[in-house]
Amino acid sequence: MEPTGSERGPAPYEPGEGCVTAVVRVPVRIVVLVLVVPVRLVWDVLTAAGRAVHRTALRPLGRGLAWLWHTLVVAPLRWLWRTLVVAPAAWLWRWVLAPAGRGFGAAVVRLVRYLIVVPARWVQAYVLAPLGRGLARLVRGLGAVLGALVRWIVVVPAVALWRWVLAPAGRALAAVVTVLVRETGAALGHCWRAAGIISRAVGRFLAAVLRWTLVEPVRWVYCTVLTPVGHVIRDGLWRPVRQALRTARETVRQTRREIRRALFGAPREPEPARAVVPRREPGGSGARTLGKTSGRDVPPPARG
After folding, report:
1. Which residue in 25, 47, 210, 295 has the fewest CB atoms around it within 10 Å?
2. Looking at residue 10, what DSSP letter applies?
3. Cα–Cα distances in Å, from 6 out to 13, 38, 44?
């Protein structure tokens, strides 16, 4: 059984508290303990006494009062209800209401049968049924007449019109349309090919005219005039100018380098990289063997 909230220990404090908190906490807990212990003892005594009184006195007293209530009140009232209410009601239902209800129901059934059901059956058999059969025969006759009229006035002329007029006219029209479409397509194909031939001829003529009026003169001018002039400009003007610009740029760089060296001194030369000595591998001629000593084991010569 788990302890209740009052029987559990105090909740632990968060770590990291100072010494002042610890000094104040101990006296406060002592005072609270002195004040709470008597109150808790009195509460436990009162709780135990209440449980004992309830178990030894109140519970038996309640059971006795419940038995007296059931014996002196509930049982007599139940007996009076069964003797004075339930029994007369059952006798009245069995010997008065049920026979009267059965007689009234039989009378109502007979009245309904002879006043409604029998006349309705007679009307159904001798009035409505013959009238319905006559109306059905009339409707069938009218339907047959109307059907014959519709057949000979609408269906037969429509079938004849379709068979002898519309269908032949449709076939002839379809044949004419097919011929027109085929011939039109063929004519368009011939015209398209002829137009292509004419277009190619016109294109070649225009290309020849453009070549001899524009392309060839421009080509002749480029090959005969512009190319030699370009070579003369490149060799006689552009190359000397580029060489002069390169010489001037190098002179400016050298002058700037001399000025920097005069003002700030020559730049420090980088130190030479140290040679990486490979780590000695075991074995080989340099390996130490029994009876031999390496260069490290030989003692240094004594100074004279």
Report:
1. 295
2. P
3. 18, 15, 12
